[in-house]
Design brief:
mainly alpha, 53% helix, 0% strand, elongated, 87 residues
């Protein structure tokens, strides 16, 4: 059983590594004052245990912001589950 568990753990880690490579970086690219403000807010909220609602027009990067918050949070090892509230 322990050997099976170790094997499953290795498989999971390998899949997570592949998934991160496929998904790409969640690093924000913009250098405008507005994007710097968004980055600052992400860094402030990520270490907290607060819920975050990200609002914006289609195509503005809401999911990217949510992924970045998750990546910087204490829950980063847990799955990220995007929810589209507009659907």
């Amino acid at each position: 059983r322990a050997a099976d568990w170790r094997q499953q753990t290795r498989k999971t880690q390998a899949l997570e590594t592949r998934l991160k490579a496929i998904e790409g970086s969640t690093e924000l690219v913009g250098q405008t004052a507005a994007m710097q403000q968004v980055a600052t807010l992400i860094e402030r909220v990520a270490p907290t245990d607060s819920s975050v609602l990200v609002l914006g027009e289609t195509g503005t990067g809401k999911e990217l912001v949510a992924r970045r918050v998750h990546e910087l949070s204490a829950r980063r090892e847990m799955p990220f589950v995007p929810v589209n509230c507009g659907a």
